[in-house]
């Protein structure tokens, strides 16, 4: 989804949790209402990090309930992403969402 941060930035992040859900980030694992989220879109990055013997994400987030009318967002580059784990972004109100991004992956097959 797309949303503004400050007066001159627009961020593109994944919605991870919705209002009313409990979210927690523990290393490479994200939990929604106590259930580990299966993030297939991170498989390549997780594999590369494992091959290097390092975690993919080094920024945790203590369990919190997403406020009603807001979402919790994260970027795919977890260790370097400005997202809901940062006070400058926090939970994103629905009213701030500018749009969604849809990607199509093409193959040569």
TrEMBL record:
Annotated EC: 3.4.21.89
Catalytic activity: Cleavage of hydrophobic, N-terminal signal or leader sequences from secreted and periplasmic proteins
Keywords, sorted A to Z: Hydrolase, Protease
CDD domains hit by this protein: S26_SPase_I
Pfam (any one): Peptidase_S26
UniProt cross-references to Gene3D superfamilies, sorted A to Z: Umud Fragment, subunit A
Molecular function terms from GO: serine-type endopeptidase activity; signal peptidase activity
Topology class, membrane: Single-pass type II membrane protein
Record InterPro entries: LexA/Signal_pep-like_sf (IPR036286), Pept_S26A_signal_pept_1 (IPR000223), Pept_S26A_signal_pept_1_CS (IPR019758), Pept_S26A_signal_pept_1_Lys-AS (IPR019757), Peptidase_S26 (IPR019533)
The Peptidase S26 domain, residue ranges: 6-103
This protein's GO CC annotations: plasma membrane
The keyword Cytoplasm belongs to this UniProt entry's keyword annotation: no
EC class (word): hydrolase
GO terms of biological process kind: signal peptide processing
NCBIfam families hit by this protein: sigpep_I_bact
Recorded family membership: Belongs to the peptidase S26 family.
Protein name as annotated: Signal peptidase I
Species whose genome carries this gene: Paenibacillus mucilaginosus 3016
Taxonomic classification: Bacteria, Bacillati, Bacillota, Bacilli, Bacillales
């Amino acid at each position: 989804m797309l949303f503004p941060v400050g007066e001159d930035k627009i961020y593109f992040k994944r919605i991870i949790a919705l209002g009313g859900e409990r979210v927690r980030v523990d290393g490479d694992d994200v939990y929604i209402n106590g259930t580990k989220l299966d993030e297939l879109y991170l498989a390549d990055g997780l594999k590369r990090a494992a091959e290097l013997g390092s975690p993919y994400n080094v920024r945790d987030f203590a369990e919190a309930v997403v406020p009603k009318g807001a979402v919790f967002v994260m970027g795919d580059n977890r260790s370097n992403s400005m997202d809901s784990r940062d006070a400058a972004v926090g939970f994103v109100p629905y009213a701030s969402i500018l749009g969604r991004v849809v990607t199509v992956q093409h193959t040569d097959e």
